[in-house]
Amino acid sequence: MPAVSDSGRLPRSFYGRDAVRLARALLGTILRHESPEGATAGRIVETEAYCGPQDRAAHSYGGRRTPRNEVMWGPAGHAYVYFIYGMHWCVNVVAAAPGCPEAVLIRALEPVEGLELIRLRRGPGIRDEWLLRGPGNLCRGMGIDGRHNGADLVRGALTLLRARAVPAHRVKRTPRVGIAGAGEHARLLWRFRVEGSASVSGK
DNA sequence: GAATAGATTGTCT
DNA sequence: GACAATCTATTCT
Fold first, then answer.
1. What number of other Cβ atoms are within 10 A of residue A54's Cβ?
2. Chain B: nucleotides under 7 Å from a protein CB?
């Protein structure tokens, strides 16, 4: 019996809201991947909202629509996975409505299921709480890569599960990470993290 | 502890 | 050809 039930899958309606609200709502939910090597899952403790054409830090800034970011333009509840810095994958959850290219970057998870497999993928010498810390690291540990771009989280092997909500007093809002080139938009408080979790990334 | 550099490749101009 | 929603190791202080 798996440590995490698959029955609590979040419905499509959960995703159909603006990226900032979705980023907050995703805290505490469980990202689960049932791969051929085994199942892994983690509790989301850090997210960032990317808010479409007006957001200088977003891939869809200025209405850009390319093969890479095409899934951002599609229906909510799908995974937008892209490759960056020559070696890392990052996974986003598409928000809002078709034609509104908003998404939420998943930045950190607390490992919940499949610890052995996660350790195997990450390599030796890493504390368990840090195995899925950082957007690139969590994709490696969860076995997420370009094959998952466009995956439907409501139906496929990659899923999001409902879990106990994170109370407001445990949520901290900060500026986003790694977007110094975004001018004024770099200062907006569009990063959400669970206070006190050992698994959040950054300083 | 802070700052810096190097890795390494898809994507877009 | 420049650069990127990163991570790690190394070199300072």
1. 11
2. 2, 7-13
